[in-house]
Amino acid sequence: xxxxxxxxxxxxxxxxEADSSAVVVVDTAKPRFSWVPRDERxxxxxxxxxxxxxxxxxxxxxxxxxxxxSGKVESGENNLVRLGGADLPECTRxxxxxxxxxxxxxxxxxxxxAVDLAESPWxxxxxxxxxxxxxxxxxxxxxxxxxxxxxxxVLLVEGDINxxxxxxxxxxxxxxxxxxxxxxxxxxxxxxYVCGLGYNECFVxxxxxGRNRLDPGQTDYRLRALYSVHNVTDSLRTGENALxxxxxxxxxxxxxxxxxxxxxxxxxxxFDDGARRVVVSEGSWKTSHGPIVHNGIYSGEVYDARLEQPxxxxxxxxxxxxxxxxxxxxxKLEAQVLPPIRVVATMPARALSFPEPGVHIxxxxxxxxxxxxxxxxxxxxxxxxxxxxxxxxxxGSLNLGTNRESQSSDLFILKxxxxxxxxPRFTYHGFRYAELTGFPGIPTVDTLEGLVIHxxxxxxxxxLCSNQLVNRIHSNILWGQLSNLxxxxxxxxxxxxxxxWLGDAQLASEEACNNFDMAGxxxxxxxxxxxxQLTDGSLSDVVPPYWPLYPTDPAWGxxxxxxxxxxxxxxxxxxxxERHYEGMxxxxxFLDANSPxxxxxxxxxxxxxxxxxxxxxxxxxxxxxxxxxxxxDTLVFSRIAAVLGKxxxxxxxxxxxxxxxxxxxxxxxxxxxxxxxxxxxxxDRTVGQTSQALPIYHDMVPAGQKERAFARLVEAVVKNADxxxxxxxxxxxxxxxxxxxxxxxxxxxxxxxxxxxxGWGYMVAEGATTLWERWEKLGGMGMNSHNHIMFGSVDAWFxxxxxxxxxxxxxxxxxxxxxxxxxxxxxxxxxxxTIRGTVCxxxxxxxxxxxxxxxxxxxxxxxxxxxVHGENPVLSESEELLPIRSVESAGKNxxxxxxxxxxxxxxxxxLCLSVASGSYSFGLSVG
Length: 927
Ligand code: BGC
Known about the structure:
This protein is α+β, with helices and mostly antiparallel strands. About 20% of the residues lie in helices and about 35% in strands.
């Protein structure tokens, strides 16, 4: 029986049933549909699909598409199929369903009749169009006239990373807005479109609209802001209804060129006779301050419960003391179509200690991004402070060093009316420890509860192996990645940065896409990058450019092509490539225009950032890294042009890439097979891991020199670094791949499993629960965050080398499954929920051989390369023997099972075979 799962509209999965307020919103009149075909039969491929779209669920359930019916389309495509027919109207809910036909090669060993055809049932989902016509906004941006504020210093970096200053930022007290309207009859549907800058939370008759936190997502508010859509039908009543909104500062602060918080809200009511009414934000709204007397991303929140105004968001509240709102201006609005930031989990404290009287330290056992919820009971006016840190001092109190310029502290003032609960709304912290002071009495471990907060991306990957150190590194990477997804990919969650540094994002992107569904997130971020581009084509190191750092270091700016390519390779999104084609071209041209003779020696600022011992690269010339990225981006761009069918341009950029490679070798390749290191002196004997690995990665080394270049790399690992990493974030991304492809996966494994300095294992040995910014264990005020994701690229190596899953082309149609079974590894497995379905490979070593289970989705084929450790291998699949062939007859299938596309043949120490889609369980025994 074939089934369909994973329905998505424009990359967005259907929200969970439990959250009735969430809707799938598309910001287009012609959305694209995706689904995952499921068929347990081997060798199955989708032969046709049919999509129907209707306004009502009943029609779709009856198999009728009143808005659109694609008819039966003969196609194997299951991803991003665009709606045909007329444009959809805005602000409308639609139901859609898809059914597919699949053909599978039968179990019979031969014969033309061996193909089985089958049809799936309809599978249904829904989506909603956003406000597509700007004129449909009938609301005004409103704010509070002259709200109170206090000044806090924030870090501002402009032009150059060394030009960092502490500047005063006006942080406005929480602004509360309310309005009411009356309803004679209940609508069948009520949708709230809301953007409250910097952050907002909305209430309808006292009930929270949606579960989003730190909403809306970060953008450059000069150019656009995102609005969220909440279904609030269930919160309305006949008679008077109240709307309440709280606004916080977020990043909408003057220090970044913005101003006081503001709101745009529109409530669309739809009645059963088709009539529509809108309730809007306008000058008649009332405003006031309330209990949030301070809120800042870095400085935390101060909540004075004595200032609460019970019922402020309910009908009938006396708001005569509230001031009328003022009409202000605001940016262009676009729908927020990436997954929102949410509280995704709660974390109980694992331990509670008392380093000093009245000072209570809660240990959550894990570094993460979020806040804590406090429960307390005490006299009115009691001031309870909570501070946060990643580390403790030797005496067990908070070590605030790594927070650097971030105050990371919340204050709660009790109203004294029994048990009170506090959780801040408009801030977050990066921490493992929380210090509670001013608490009335003695707290228990439950007094604080951690709330894990980040963009709620779906988990799509899994990895596990028999080496617990590697599992721990993987876990640290997952926590590090999630802590740094705050609607933009941030560098860290704790100190006064938390910015969208492009380099950190691009280096970790393969890891991120394996582990999480990053499609909506990266689609949004690519738009941020596009909007940040200057007319000369340059980009900023930080996007959104709250810190305008133009022009970007090439290793950072590479995010533009890298993330766009990931959207195509991982998520099959060709239109993203189209949308950003001109922008990427302007960027790649900007790089080359600033590289006389194709050597870039002017744009690099960071290069192979954070190698052992320092932040600036001490062995890798920055111009080598910059020029290599010039090559990389030009090459990737030429591939993008080719994929888009722009053959002429593909050729132009491919030729340019070849010229850059030649210039690179002329400039940096020394006579003895080494690439230049710092200082760039020809007599220096050093060989650098990064300098060496980068050109090998892209096969840039001239013929005849390849072996020597690789041998020098091995020397850089074995002789110069005693089997350790000796690279910064750029080298770490490519080194292990290069070692494996060059036949020294064992060396990569040695590097990964080191527990002595420097290395990922060293971090674990020193108690890390996330990844550090530096290879060193540092706890002071410098560059030493304990939750940076930029070294997390190693996780991609786990998937590729230990799980063995290697995509052979963009879009997941064909794969290689080639695990490396290192001597001290007994088993490993990885799975990725791809756009085609779940790809999974897991293997186990036994005394007599090796077993491997593989799942391949419909329409996906794989080349399996099973390691053979021993003589006379015998291969079986689900107990059935598969005779090993000679290499000559490898392509011919003969009487073999039809799912076996080629092989098995023995090539060196691997048994190689090609298989069609399906689930397999192979056993290999050796004599
Ligand atoms: C950030 C990094 C960033 C770097 C630029 C740091 O302050 O935390 O992650 O990429 O600056 O070199």
